[in-house]
Amino acid sequence: MSTTNVSTAIPAGLTEDQVIAALHNHELMIKTLCPALISHEFESGDPTGQASYMVTDKKPIGQTTYKLTLTNVPSGVDSLVNAKPPVGTLTISGKWRVVDGKLVEDVEIDGNFMMKKMAKGNVEKTHPEQHGKLLEAASA
């Protein structure tokens, strides 16, 4: 399993409660996590607690559909991506937390060597921007 961490300071004027409310907004999380979103469909659960969605997203290797589960917790949200790309299974588990004035995301990636390396590089490249977009939406 491969792990990585992304941390972003919460801007002045934005409260931790505002950021947690944004993390608990599943529609906002889906749009933030999937910048090339094609479509998403509620699958099961409760959007105010834990819910699963089928997401279709455009990736560099083409269009992909995967299951995304979001679980609200008191200090943030847990995200779980279960994807089955042509080259194997990929699981990306994220813990988004508001801690000490920061938005902190711990990510665990599981899959074959090639998929883990590609996914980790993608997370490290794109998630700081996703944090920024989420914090911007939280202040609106």
TrEMBL record:
Stretches assigned to the DUF7053 domain: 4-138
Pfam families documented for this protein: DUF7053 (PF23155)
Protein name according to UniProt: DUF7053 domain-containing protein
Native organism: Polyplosphaeria fusca
